[in-house]
Amino acid sequence: MSEHTQAQVKLDLDDIQRGVLSPRPTPYAATYILFRIDDREHGRELMRRVSAVVTSAADTVSPLGETWVSVALTYQGLKALGVPHESLATFAWEFRQGMAARAAALSDIGESSPENWEPPLGTPDVHVVLVALAPDSARLEAAIDRARSAYDALTGVTAIWRQNCHALPTETEPFGYRDGISHPAVEGSGIAGSNRLEAPLKAGEFVLGYPDELGGVQTPQPDVLGRNGTYVAFRKLHQRVGAFRRYLRDNATDPEDEELLAAKIMGRWRSGAPLALSPSHDDPGLDADPYRNSFLYQQEDPAGFITPGGSHIRRGNPRDAAVAGVPRLHRMIRRGTVYGPPLPEGVLEDDGADRGLMFAFIGAHLGRQFEFVQSEWMNDGVFFGSGDAKDPILGSHEGSGDFIVPRRPVRRRLCSLPRFVVTRGGEYCFMPGLTALRWLGDLSD
């Protein structure tokens, strides 16, 4: 490995969008707005304007607090702005295809297939994604007001979809688990990771233009466009909360066992306390422990008697386990924001309301990060010694899946897993650096 890749990398934080590296505030309010560019010059003017609105990763002190605006573009959006073909060809091929075209690889099949997605998600009409995030609705509206000046009066740019998100009163995701706990440390970011046992990852795993874990540097061309950008996979995931509660109730012996099953399926108790640190009971007090996410699997629980190998969080981040090579090569920055009304406590039937998570993956390698984890770890079980078993929560089940809970003397098998999560749509996007936004604004034919 070269001396350059071994040295601590200095990130251009003032050129990287803050939404790339900063953990989501808790509690939060958020909104996603999609735009279509009908007039190239107006689209370029939008880029010039948003470059003055987007928050940089260096701007961690703001009158609005933990509030920021981020902007990303689809491949179709870059084409609509007139980015030259020779430049477009240097972007990741998964990004150029788009998420809808990658549906089979992502197990977006059946109810989750693109023909069932919520319009205009997955269509060529989606060009720009604007995301605003804040600790509360008042500061969110202030951020949106700032952003609105960037697209108001641009008749050639049309807002075509919006999804508002919010923290539930319980500060959990719709299935009832505490969310937003895990965050990797990125070299040069100045932001601590949530697991002190995990060495910081190379900046090039998450930001284009820097060395990654393999020593390579990925950057779309020209360098002014690609450097300090990243890829983002946005997904709208509908959650069948009533079905999930009913499945737990039907397969548990009593309320205490119901909570244990919920913990075994997730790998964490509802409070967010990991089974790895609290194997036999929930421990909400761990929420105040800054090291509550510092644990390993292979060294401490190789057989999964504490945290099942097929549980959601162990699949999504196997930590020190030797599965599919080096788990560090598949690490992601994950963000989830809740949408829709909560299903009242105790209700076991879904009421037809749309509720779930807007999910965002951030990383520099769509193929070996998001797509690998989605296809090989979420929707297959070979690497975990579980055959074709899928993730018990996110897996594309059709009522025939199983989930194994290792225990002595006899393991426990949960059968006939239904589909708890349905993909409502998604987009692969490129989130440029601030210099790149200005470069896109200055394009000419």
TrEMBL record:
InterPro entries: Dimeric_a/b-barrel, DyP_N, Dyp_peroxidase. Its cofactor is heme b. Residues 16-150 form the DyP dimeric alpha+beta barrel domain. Coiled coil: none annotated. The keyword Methyltransferase does not apply. It comes from the Bacteria. Keywords: Iron, Metal-binding, Oxidoreductase, Peroxidase. Pfam families: DyP_N (PF21105). SUPFAM superfamilies: Dimeric alpha+beta barrel. One of its GO terms (molecular function) is heme binding. NCBIfam families: Dyp_perox_fam. This is Dyp-type peroxidase. It comes from Nonomuraea rhodomycinica.
